[in-house]
Amino acid sequence: MKIVGKLALVAALLVAAPSSAQTTSVFSAGAESAIQSVLPRMIAWRRDFHQHPELSYEEVRTSRIVAAHLRSLGLEVRTGVAQTGVVGVLRGGRPGPVIALRADMDALPVTEEVDLPFASRVRATYNGQPVGVMHACGHDTHTAVLMAAATVLSQRRSEVAGTVIFVFQPSEEGAPAGGLGGAQRMLHENVFGDLHPEVVYGLHAWPTPTGTVTIASGPFMAGADQMNIVVHGRQTHGAQPHRGIDPIVVSSEIVQALQTIPSRQMDAVRSPVIITIGSIHGGVRYNIIPDRVEMQGTIRYLNPETRDDLYARIRRTVEQVAASAGTTAEVTIQHNAIPVVNPSEATARTRMALARALGEQNVLTDQPNMVAEDFAYFQQGQPGVFFFYGVSPPGVSVADAAPNHSPRFFVNEPAMETALRAILAVTLDRVGPAQEAASP
Ligand SMILES: [Zn+2]
Ligand SMILES: [Zn+2]
C-alpha cells in the first residue's frame, strides 16, 4: 500500500500532460480540439471537488458549481431536483433522439489517507460521530467528466442530432433512514421532465488499469439493502446467566446461522448472495449480561427474483434462533438499491462504440460483482447501460489497488480522459454525425 501511495503522488504530478494514447480519433477534428482544450479544466474541477467533498444530500457547493457551469454553456438548467441534484438539457442543432447521461456527486464519511496536494481535510458529523469526508468512490471524477462532456457537446451543438440530458445526482451512497436515495428521488421528482430518453448511460471509477473500460450485459452489480436486527434479552449478573437471557450469545448464534443462508440455502451460481454483519452493539460492562443487542448488516444479491425468498429466510433464521433461546428478535430491512442489469441489445451497441473510440483491447468484460449502485433505478423506465472506467496507475494490479471506499482510494487522473472519450463516444453513437455507422 506504501508503493501505491508513492505512485499516486508521482502520477498526480505528471497529470498535467494529457494522455495521447489515442493516436487515431473517432471524433471530428472540431470535437477532438474541444476535448483537448477541456482536459485541463476537467482536472481542475475534479481537484476542487476532491478538496471540498460533501456528504449525501449536502452537495450544495458542488451542485452550485455544476449549475453555474451548465448555465454558462447555454443549457436549460433545473436545480433542487432531489434536494441538491442538477439537470441540464442540451438541444442539438439537428433533430434526433433523446438520451441521458448520469453522474453522481456525493462523498463518503472516510478520512483521506492519500498524500495529495489537494487531499481532503474536510470533517463533518455522520450518525452522530465526527468523521473525515472524502471522495473515496471517485464521484468527484464522475461530476468533472460529465461537466467536460457537456462542454464539448455544447461547443459542437450543430453536430448534435438530438437532445442530451445531463443528470447530476445527489446521494448515491445509500438512502438516509426512512428516505429515498438520490436516483429514486430524482425519478420521483420527474428528472426528465417531458423528455423521454431512449437510453441512459452511467459510468464509475474502478480500480482496474487506466485506459480501459469494463462492461458486461446482464447482471453487473448487486442489489443492496440494509438490515437492522434487535435481539431482546433479560439483564442479569454475568455469574448467573441462568437467571436471565443472554442476547450476546443469541446474537452470535444469529450471525453464524445467517451465514448458512448464502452457503447452504441459496443457489450459489444462479443466485449469489452475501450477508455481512458490520456492527454489533450490546452491553456496557464485562460482568453484566445486557438487556438487548443491536446489529446492522448489508444484504447483497444479484438475481432480482431472489429477493423476497432471501428476506423470508433471513427473518425466519433470526426469529427462530431467538425463539430457541426463549426470546425474540426483530429484523427490519431498508431497501437501498436493486441490481444493475445491463440490457443485452443496448449493451452490445455501447460496447461497439467504446471499442471504436478506445480500441478493442481496452474494452474489458468481467463477472458481475457484489457492490451496488443506485443507477439501477435509471434502468427501470428505459434501457440504461452502466460501465466502469479503470483508474489505477500503470503497474498497480487490481489486487494491490485500494478498493472504492478505502481511505487510500486513488484515481490516476489521466484515466479521466478515457472516461470523457468513453462517455462522448456512447453519446455520439446515438446523437452524433456518425451514428448511421453505429448500428450493430
Ligand atoms: Zn461508493
Ligand atoms: Zn460510487
If you had to describe this structure to a student in words, what would you say it looks like?
This protein is of the alpha+beta class and 440 residues long. The chain folds into 2 domains: 2-221 and 339-438, 3-Layer(aba) Sandwich (Aminopeptidase), CATH 3.40.630.10; 223-337, 2-Layer Sandwich (Alpha-Beta Plaits). Helix content is 32%, strand content 26%. It has 9 helices and 18 strands. The strands form 5 sheets. Strands 1-2-6-3-7-18-8-17 form an 8-stranded mixed beta sheet, with helices on both faces. Strand 4 and strand 5 (129-132) form a beta hairpin. Helix 6 packs antiparallel against helix 7 (307-324). The radius of gyration is 24 Å and the shape is elongated. Residues 1-23 and 435-440 have low confidence and may be disordered. Bound molecules: zinc ion (ZN) (2 copies). The site of one zinc ion has 4 residues, from loops. Residues 137, 173, 404-405 line the site of one zinc ion.
Quick structural overview:
This protein has 440 residues and is an alpha+beta fold. 32% of the residues lie in helices and 26% in strands. One zinc ion binds next to loops.
